[in-house]
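Example A, followed by Example B.
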Amino acid sequence: MSSPIYTTLARQQGLMQEMQAVANNLANSSTTGYKSDKAVFTEFLVSTGNSADQSLSMGALGGHTFLMEQGGLNFTGGRFDLAIQGEGFFMVDTPQGQRLTRAGHFQLSSEGQLVDMHGNAVLSAVVAFGFWGVLPVYWKQLGHLGSDVALAQRV
């Protein structure tokens, strides 16, 4: 197979992967806390074999990156709904281990513990990404949530 065909196929594959990322972003555009995905491409040169001066440029998917831009904040009226302005995540304790989320639709469990919409306990820290890596920001630094809220203390 000739090099122009490889180049064309590589371009078509890249366009398909980029369209998949766009379609995923559109499908999740109204999902609370969703971070959009962007395909990142790399480029490399391939010699045509005819001479050192002739080469073809080919692109390949180098990976995906998540855009961490702030989305809009909406008032929900929920007593325990929280939002993070800027960088950071809520940490919840799931059956698969601790997970990060930006979805702040919380409620009280029957035991009086703050949980997410799936019943996972909200841990007592918001995780912020700073210069030194992952830094916990404790609820006391954020303000008072109320005396009837019990937060999990496993951080």
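Example B, a separate protein, is given below in the same form.
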Amino acid sequence: MGTQLAMSTSFHPETDGRSERTNKTTIQALRAVVNHQQNDWVRHLGNIKFAINASVNASTKKLPFEVVLGFGGDRLIDLIAERKAVLVEVQDALAAAKVRQVEQVNRHRQPEPEIAVGDLVMVDTRDRRLRSKTGQRKSAKLFDRFEGPYKVLATNVATSNYTLQLNEGDRSHPPFHVSKL
């Protein structure tokens, strides 16, 4: 692009007049919009930056948007509007997909069994790594399909998890989902 880095000396703003002029314009604009406590200035920077970039530069007689992007601020406004329209379409599509997914899941959902604290339940062994009574590993395929009974210590209806009183030495995490009972 043909840009060159030109270092300036400290406390000599005349060296970098273009940046200093932009800073002055930014500060003047901020004075007009900040609140009395001056703690919301960051919130206004985006609008001020857009206004500066959409204004004709006195030296170049061009919009900074035109120089950098190849088109003016009016086209950028159109792009932002198009982008917002695409985002709305995407949000609508995601909402519709979520509805379809919920319908699909609910088609195969069975009502939860009524399990209360103190009830005894059996646990599905398919996903558990178990050891035989002698402590040696055996083939998991040959274990009984269900193990227990275990006493229910707590229930969490929102997550369908049940905390069980496991046998001593069982290193499983005590909460089990209802689908594993």
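On Example B: The two ends are 67 Å apart (CA to CA).
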